[in-house]
């Protein structure tokens, strides 16, 4: 019975309490009536009687005749023999009853073992039988069997049939359901999240990250961990392999292009997503209204540029050639998008907006050479074509600050100071454009009243108006690029210059730079 006690461990009652000796008949317990105490009492009485007779004979010793003495001895022997015979009969009567009791014990122990084996087989194979009132087994009042199970899903008892044991509970097979699709989980394995069960496929669908480029589940690395790349601003997640497999990336917003998504391929190899293309400026004529807005932005800061400086939109090759022709040592970003020239040279500019042909490629681009004549310290401002309006404007604001510094006599500045203060002005212009919503009011009125620009009254050329949600987000991204730049000249220079400007104001900061060549 020891193994059965282990099976029901935890119950306050054991089957050994139900063991009995004797048998039940009609609810009356019959037990053997004779005992050793009754036998002992009977023998003691006969022995006392024999001793009394013996003492009586001793008192009469010498007064009895010999033949009487023999007769007395004979009677004593008969009495003792009678006592011995009765003792033997009593012992013989008790011995079979003790043998019967021992046999009854062995039979009961064998019956208990058979009952325990039957209960164990019932627990292993199936749930015990259910009775009409819903309980499992029909237990005595003091015993609640461990086989009584309640489903953790529906809180009903589990009767005949299959059941599941998991998550520290038991369930009807139909009650153990996926938290995502609400269908029963019949697989051998399942996943857990937030103490809820999931099909492995449902868990992967909901919690395993998908690549924003190929839409597949991001694979695990050799260590079994999910490894992916993520853009710090757009939070775009993609497989690391897409950085090596030629997946196109927009030259403006820097997002990876999803599979089967169209994008514009520029003639210099750059790729432009269709969202950035929506506000892109493609030729010099189209950029003139924006250039006027930048000039008026400076005028609003009491930093008007008096000289008429040509502004040209150029291809990447023309920009690189112009940069090589400069004698002054300028400090440029890894990919140059703008340039403030001081030397006389000939630059190829884009005369008319190219068309988009088959396969989203640029066709029919018309260019012309433009000869730069030195009339002042600045001969021209060049900007890379094919960029969104806000990015083009921030480049113009940056290069215009270079022009202003040269024209005002700020010479021999360190890269951190010159590039830093130029980035401060580009950041300020982006701020004004993002929060104005409809562009610079001063620039709008000036553009409509100016007669020097042939396209000043064309609102579509200036790309002004209410900003789309994406364009606002794009402006925030360009600001983020300036703020998070890690280079010493553009990044650290901006942070030092912006801190000084916020503390002392732009006018006092510029005066301090003119006198000391450093930020206050």
TrEMBL record:
Signal sequence segment: none
CDD domains reported for this sequence: LIM, LIM_DA1
One example GO MF annotation: hydrolase activity
Region named Disordered: 58-104, 441-467
InterPro entries, A to Z: DA1-like, DA1-like_dom, UIM_dom, Znf_LIM
Low complexity composition-biased segments: 444-462
Segments forming domain LIM zinc-binding: 149-209
Pfam families associated with the record: DA1-like, LIM
Entry annotated with the keyword NAD: no
GO biological process, one term: regulation of DNA endoreduplication
Keywords for this protein: LIM domain, Metal-binding, Zinc
Ranges of Basic and acidic residues composition bias in the record: 58-71
Name of the featured protein: Protein DA1-related 1-like
């Amino acid at each position: 019975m020891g193994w059965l006690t282990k099976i029901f461990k935890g119950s306050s009652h054991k089957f050994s309490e139900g063991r009995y000796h004797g048998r039940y008949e009609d609810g009356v317990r019959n037990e053997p009536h004779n005992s050793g105490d009754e036998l002992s009492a009977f023998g003691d009485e006969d022995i006392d009687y024999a001793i009394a007779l013996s003492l009586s004979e001793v008192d009469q010793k010498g007064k009895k005749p010999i033949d009487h003495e023999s007769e007395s001895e004979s009677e004593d022997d008969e009495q003792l023999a009678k006592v011995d015979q009765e003792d033997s009969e009593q012992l013989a009567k008790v011995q079979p009853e003790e043998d019967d009791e021992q046999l009854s014990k062995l039979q009961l122990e064998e019956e208990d073992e058979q009952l325990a084996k039957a209960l164990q087989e019932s627990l292993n194979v199936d749930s015990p039988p259910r009775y009409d009132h819903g309980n499992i087994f029909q237990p005595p009042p003091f015993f609640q069997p461990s086989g009584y199970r309640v489903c953790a899903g529906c809180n009903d008892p589990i009767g005949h049939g299959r059941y599941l044991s998991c998550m520290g509970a038991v369930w009807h097979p139909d009650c153990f359901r996926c938290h995502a699709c609400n269908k029963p989980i019949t697989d051998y394995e399942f996943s857990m999240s937030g103490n809820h069960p999931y099909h492995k496929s449902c868990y992967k669908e909901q919690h395993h990250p998908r690549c924003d480029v190929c839409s597949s589940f991001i694979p695990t690395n050799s260590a079994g961990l999910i490894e992916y790349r993520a853009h710090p601003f757009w939070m775009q997640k993609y497989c690391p392999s897409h950085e090596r497999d030629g997946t196109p990336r927009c030259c403006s917003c820097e997002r990876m292009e999803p599979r089967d998504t169209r994008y514009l391929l520029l003639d210099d190899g750059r790729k432009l997503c269709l969202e950035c293309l929506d506000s892109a400026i493609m030729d010099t004529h189209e950029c003139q209204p924006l250039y006027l807005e930048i000039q008026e932005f400076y005028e609003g800061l009491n930093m008007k540029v008096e000289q008429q400086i040509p502004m040209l939109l150029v291809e990447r090759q023309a920009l690189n050639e112009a940069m090589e022709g400069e004698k002054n040592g300028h400090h440029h970003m890894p990919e140059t998008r703008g340039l403030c020239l001081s030397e006389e040279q000939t630059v190829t500019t884009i005369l008319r907006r190219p068309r988009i042909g088959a396969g989203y490629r640029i066709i029919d681009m018309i260019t012309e050479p433009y000869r730069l004549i030195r009339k002042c310290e600045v001969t021209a401002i060049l900007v890379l074509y094919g960029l969104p309006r806000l990015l083009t404007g921030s480049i113009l604001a940056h290069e215009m600050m270079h022009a202003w510094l040269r024209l005002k006599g700020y010479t021999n500045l360190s890269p951190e100071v010159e590039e830093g203060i130029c980035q401060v002005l580009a950041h300020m212009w982006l701020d004004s454009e993002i929060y104005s919503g409809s562009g610079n009011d001063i620039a709008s009125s000036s553009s409509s009243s100016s007669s020097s620009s042939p396209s000043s009254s064309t609102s579509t050329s200036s790309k002004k108006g209410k900003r789309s949600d994406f364009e606002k987000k794009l402006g925030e991204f360009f600001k983020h690029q300036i703020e998070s730049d890690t280079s010493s000249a553009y990044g650290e220079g901006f942070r030092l210059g912006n801190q000084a400007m916020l503390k002392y104001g732009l006018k006092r900061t510029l005066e301090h730079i003119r006198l000391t060549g450093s930020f206050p």
